[in-house]
Amino acid sequence: MTDAFVFDGVRTPFGKVGGALSGVRPDDLAEVVISELLARAPGVSGEDAGDVVGEVIFGNANGAGEENRNVARMAWLLAGGSTSVPASTVNRLCGSSMDAAIQAARQVRLEESDVVLVGGVESMSRAPWVLPKTERPFPMKNLELVNTALGWRLINERMPAEWTVSLGEATEQLREKYGVSRIRQDEFAARSHRLALEAWDAGKYEGLTVEVPGADLTRDETLRQGVSAESLANLSPVFRKEGGTVTAGNASPLNDGASAAWIGSRAGGERLGLKPQARIAGWGAAANEPQFFGYAPVEASNRALEHAGLTWDRVEAVELNEAFAAQSVACIDAWGIDPEIVNAWGGAVAIGHPLGASGTRCLSTLAARMQADGQRWGVATLCIGVGQGLAVVLENVDAEGE
Q1: What would the pLDDT profile of 221-230 be if each residue is shown by its tens digit?
Q2: Cβ distance 342 to 79 under 8 Å?
Q3: pLDDT reading at 369 higher than 80
């Protein structure tokens, strides 16, 4: 089969809920990263993209607000893309844009497309409140507005109660099961902030980010200076008041943002006018009990490595989306890998986690890290609500055979 490659990737700085990007529609956020990728591909422009781009696939976890009606198609058209290019939006919650990248890799390997533009977007600020429709025109009972920004909503009563606990309570149960202490969570979270700030200061995110026009945001908005395990220890638990360990400081925040990447064959890269960064060597999906969603990247990554014909001793770089510090630590423990190879440029606890955008954020960051540091093999992976995980294995094309 034809190999699939990552050629380029970009994201917006991630804004906090109610922050600098809260006034920007999600389809406009997606248009920003699409337009940037088009501008950086000398072999294609929006008007003639139909001759090069086989499809646009974007991920989005909400789909209840301004991003409804297929945000991939809307953003592509807003970017001035050719009307002849088809587009689809996929939803695998936090893994949506990584799912988009995997679908693109399949298309390329099956020679259905030479070039696919993938990405994801989420505006958790602008996620609407919804009111359930009633069975009769004038109900006599009260109705409750539901916030669609995050987590379970409009739950089916047939679902077992243990599956539908909050994401935070689920993480408390996971850290109990795998013995992750509060101090390890806070140390991990402090490291995330420190490494993200160091990466921004060193200019490592300059080529990976594009500013949103009209928004006063040049860096990820939830980054904090001077964060330490000691300062985080002063924060109170959010989900369990008695005996809890998960706090606002050791969990990812709520965010707005978008990310995108070019995926294609070598021939597709020539048409784009871009050199490949990394070969997509394998991928994997896994699922477990919904309340232990944070642990699903363990098996997903193991399956992706098996697909690529590798074992963990060959892996030199990992991008693990930090939904919560507790689940990240549990996954790293399960793999038995050196924690220092994980999220060397910081992770979602510091950078943020706009759900639909995090998959291609991880994938593009991994490709850039591996090229910058000369590493050959890497894994990008995420946990996904309702008990799933996704992972992709990349091979640095500049380190092939080393």
Answers
A1: 999 999 999 9
A2: no
A3: yes
Please state, in angstroms and as integers, the Cα–Cα distance from residue 133 to each residue in 117, 130, 295, following that order. 36, 9, 35
DSSP per position, 253-310: --EEEEEEEEEE-HHHHHHHT----EEEEEEEEEE--GGGGGGHHHHHHHHHHHHHT-
Q: In this predicted structure, what is the pLDDT of residue 401?
A: 65
In the prediction, which pLDDT does 385 show? 96
Active site residue 383: yes
CA distance 97 to 118: 7
Burial class of residue 118, CB neighbours in 10 A (0-12, 13-18, 19+): buried
Is the CB of residue 91 less than 8 Å from the CB of residue 63?
yes
pTM > 0.90: yes or no: yes
362 given a catalytic annotation: no
Do residues 382 and 374 lie in contact, with contact meaning Cβ atoms separated by under 8 Å?
no
C-alpha dist (Å) from residue 397 to 6, 121, 162, 392, 401: 10, 28, 45, 15, 9
pLDDT band at 51 (very low <50, low <70, confident <90, very high): confident
Catalytic residue among 193, 331, 353, 362: 353
Residues 246-298: tens digit of each pLDDT: 999 999 999 999 999 999 999 999 999 999 999 999 999 999 999 999 999 99
Which member of 193, 331, 362, 383 is catalytic? 383
Residue burial 244-272, b: 16+ Cβ < 10 Å; e: rest: bbbbebbbbbbbbbbbbbbbbbbebbebb
Q: What is the mean pLDDT of residues 45-49?
A: 78
Is 353 one of the catalytic residues?
A: yes
Q: What percent of the chain has pLDDT over 70?
A: 99
Cβ contacts of 67 within 8 Å, gap of 6 or more: 25, 26, 27, 30, 60, 74, 89, 121, 123
Half-sphere exposure of 2 (CA within 13 A, CB side): 21
Task: Provide φ and ψ at 388, rounded to 5°.
Answer: -135, 165
